[in-house]
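dude i think i finally got it to work??
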Amino acid sequence: MSWLVTGGAGYIGAHVVRALQDAGLDPVVVDDLSSGHADFVPEGVPFVQGTILDRDLLVAAMREHGVTGVIHVAGFKYAGVSVQRPLHTYEQNVEGTRVVLQAMADAGVTSIVFSSSAAVYGTPDVPLVTEDLPKRPASPYGESKLIGEWLLRDQGVATAASDAPLRHTSLRYFNVVGSADPAVYDTSPHNLFPIVFEKLLAGETPQINGDDYDTEDGTNVRDYVHVGDIAAAHVVAAQRLAAGESVEPAYNLGSQNGLSVKEIMDAMARVTGIPFTPVIGPRRPGDPDRIVATGELAARDLAWQNRYTVDEMVRTGWEARRAATA
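look at this
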């Protein structure tokens, strides 16, 4: 059983590839390397370099490798930058997903796991985010992910009575951190963990953006989940789709217990052994006080669980980042 992983040379995608291998499934990677890295793809895994906007390339890859399902991770995922680059965001995330679905239809592939995002909710004002919460994305990125979910839904409806109905689910995750393989680390210039790691490696002091939020320590609270747990959930979702088992249209992959930015900074100093006192900067516009999700549905259906403490999240990410320059 072969699964095509779009964006499989990226931080999250490369972890999904390894989790598929561990489960005895055969991954195939398509990635344009715009943010991914060829050396993140394990040796022996078929790697097709190209864009998901190329339908012919996708169809050829699916047919050549006998692909039976797709895990669609590829996309432009920077919410803040998407405000400045909305057209690029929609091209990569909306048109890209449409082309993936068209290629699947052309190649007769009927199962897809879609990497969605907590950004579809915008800035919810509830203590715990559940899947049925109204969707109010606050950025082109969040909007593009929500439209991606709609595309899956509509194609599922359109093909429901056919000989090849589309089976799908979307996984909405929050702040993905850590590493489950020292060969793979987060290289994003926009995510908290790599930002702090690069500051520490450069001998600089990390910054906290605002300390006057309505939280216990004044810094905003987010839902941090380990990339190894995220990858495992993708595999179980793929297995359920392949087996014809029922799945929900979407699942939150959340911890149910948020961590404040200050708590993350404390763990960074503790685990790295580099003492520092963060600089307090101004708030970023639009940053909510708290976003934390329940993962109850995913726990029920996808064996979802949070297996890592905050120190382990930091330690695995730090070790992978340091290994890259060893």
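The two ends are 36 Å apart (CA to CA).
im so relieved honestly
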